[in-house]
Amino acid sequence: MTHRTVGHAPTAAPPPGLPDDRHAQVTAPSPTCPVEITLAALRGRWTTLVVRELLRQETRSYSDLAARLPTLSDKVLSDRLAQLVAAGVVHKHRTAGWPSTVSYELTPHGRKLGPVLQALWDWGADAPARRAEPADPGHDPPDRP
């Protein structure tokens, strides 16, 4: 039988959604925080769409990705792929020959982003502030009941 120490309440489990980890008690953002690492890997517009395309098909060429995201500029696609490779989310494979070909695929760690993106989608779909873009950038849409 254990005894409670006077003045110390038993530690309660954290509320749902909060990790039970001593590192989760930080008081300022940290680059070693798992949430910050995830957000850094997914930073920038288009990143989640590039990951989505790689989740849909295991291996894709640069030109295939560009064709699937036609309004994405070559510069931004190159930047996002380089960012995802640097984050360990995507593996870049170059084959020898002329011309050489380059393909991209999610790493095993990158494939784990599927449920993360689904959770982000689910949360955003249920967000009360979700509304359509205003037709006129100078005017806000009317409030919905």
Give the tags.
6 helices; alpha+beta; 145 residues; three-stranded antiparallel beta sheet; 3 strands
- Give the end-to-end Cα distance, rounded to a whole number of Å: 57 Å
Q: What is the general shape?
A: elongated
Radius of gyration: 22 Å
Q: DSSP helix count?
A: 6
Number of strands: 3
For the biggest sheet, the summary is: 3 strands, antiparallel
Helical fraction = 25-40%
- Indicate the structural class: alpha+beta
Strand order across the largest sheet: 1-3-2
Are there runs of 5+ residues with pLDDT below 50, and where?
A: none
SSE order, as H and E?
HHEHHEEHH
The share of residues in extended strands comes to 5-15%
What features would you describe in this structure?
- The protein is of the alpha+beta class and 145 residues long.
- The protein has 6 helices and 3 strands, in the order ααβααββαα.
- The longest helix has 14 residues.
- It is elongated, with a radius of gyration of 22 Å.
- The mean pLDDT is 83.
Question: What is this structure's SSE topology?
Answer:
Layout: H1 34-41, H2 47-56, E1 59-61, H3 62-68, H4 74-86, E2 90-95, E3 101-106, H5 108-111, H6 113-126
Antiparallel strand pairs: 1-3, 2-3
Summarize this structure briefly.
This protein is of the alpha+beta class.
